Structure to design on (415 residues):
């Protein structure tokens, strides 16, 4: 059972759906499997996610249905791997590792006729440059720099966000021309981190195992903020540029695959992401959270964050791939994600998932292939809370019985 007879089935394990709807802002899963393919290799893929996430506000906010607040999105990926010599390899991997796309359009707790809707959009891009050293056929030691960009927009509206939504107990009526609420425009910023890893393989039995660490990446970003708080003595903070630190989390990926019978491989991916230490606190948002009037309401003298999480994320995907003939192969997989805590932010109100997936691959020639996959997600029920409620049991809405469907397509060329 030589490695070359199983290449088709193994590539199926990399259909671009690994992260799709993971905890917190995790999106792509940050796989490096393309870099570990034998010889010279190129691939390009796209994943599309169609989630359905809705809930109901607590009684104090009217027990209102939120409507579907999760937007559809897609993210591309691409990779080039070159085996420069018997002992040295080089790779370029592009993906969009983190992101968010959500908008509340129905519930009055998150919207207002004069204010618009609560929404969030976060986009990142990443380019990993990997250098590998293979002292023998069995070992691969690799590492390199990671270039990453991040940008986004956030709008908070409605009573669920109290002072940040333009509401405050005892505040008088606002003029009709005034649009209360909080807006933050996160300008695109770039920064550099790194990755390092180690892989071991036994080609004769199609065994391959790898562990990859990715570092935190620190961004210092000019965030354009607009606040009309309703807090006496504060009023409008208008279009203020102030630098904010955003650090995307460190992570570890463990990947394993092995032949289990002729033309059949089993594969597994385990992933850890350090969301517990992640937070976003834009400059003026944080200052207002420490205003004496706000502290009197929240009981948090040190203020609070716009987004934060209480737990790290753990996820597992496992499956079996089988080569059916020289042109066709297929796989099945199951996955689990822990989520990043519950209650969780209203800007991403689910707690992990279970999923099942199917994949198929067609190879018109020994050097080329096209692969597609689909996954169905059962999203975990969650209680959603505003930033001021973080690290407490309080929440503003509950989200139950939600799901998502993901599709992936990938083309590849071995040369």
């Amino acid at each position: 059972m030589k490695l070359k007879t199983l290449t088709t089935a193994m590539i199926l394990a990399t259909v671009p759906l690994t992260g799709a709807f993971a905890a917190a802002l995790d999106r792509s899963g940050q796989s490096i499997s393309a870099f570990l393919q034998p010889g010279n290799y190129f691939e390009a893929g796209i994943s599309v996610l169609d989630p359905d996430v809705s809930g109901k506000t607590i009684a104090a906010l009217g027990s209102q249905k939120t409507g579907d607040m999760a937007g559809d999105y897609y993210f591309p990926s691409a990779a080039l791997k070159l085996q420069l010599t018997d002992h040295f390899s080089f790779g370029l991997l592009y993906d969009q590792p983190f992101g968010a796309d959500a908008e509340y359009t129905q519930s009055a707790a998150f919207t207002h006729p004069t204010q618009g809707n609560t929404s969030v959009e976060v986009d990142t891009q990443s380019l990993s440059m990997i250098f590998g050293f293979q002292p023998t056929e069995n070992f691969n030691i690799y590492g390199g720099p990671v270039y990453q960009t991040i940008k986004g927009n956030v709008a908070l509206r409605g009573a669920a966000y109290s002072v940040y939504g333009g509401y405050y107990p005892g505040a008088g009526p606002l003029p009709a021309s005034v649009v209360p609420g909080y807006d933050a425009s996160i300008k695109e910023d770039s920064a550099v981190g790194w990755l390092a890893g180690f892989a071991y393989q036994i080609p004769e039995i199609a065994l391959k195992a790898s562990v990859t660490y990715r570092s935190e990446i620190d961004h210092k970003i000019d965030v354009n903020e607009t606040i009309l708080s309703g807090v006496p003595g504060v009023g409008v903070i208008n279009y203020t540029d102030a630098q904010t630190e955003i650090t995307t989390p460190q992570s570890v990926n463990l990947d394993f695959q092995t032949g289990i019978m002729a033309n059949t491989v089993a594969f597994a991916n385990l992933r850890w992401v350090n969301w517990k230490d992640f937070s976003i606190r834009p400059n003026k948002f944080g200052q207002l959270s420490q205003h004496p009037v706000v502290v009197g309401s929240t009981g948090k003298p040190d203020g609070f964050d716009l987004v934060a999480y209480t737990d790290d994320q753990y996820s597992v995907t496992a499956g079996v791939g089988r080569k059916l003939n020289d042109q066709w192969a297929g796989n099945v997989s199951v996955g689990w994600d822990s989520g990043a805590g519950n209650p969780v932010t209203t800007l991403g109100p689910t707690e992990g998932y279970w999923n099942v997936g199917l994949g198929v691959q067609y190879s018109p020639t020994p050097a080329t292939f096209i692969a597609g996959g689909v996954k169905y997600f059962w999203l975990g029920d969650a209680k959603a809370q505003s930033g001021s409620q973080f690290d407490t049991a309080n929440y503003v809405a509950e989200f139950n019985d939600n799901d998502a469907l993901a599709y992936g397509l990938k083309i590849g060329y071995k040369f």
Observations:
- Residues 283-289 form the longest helix (7 residues).
- Helices lie at 7-12, 283-289, 292-298.
- DSSP finds three helices and 25 strands in the chain.
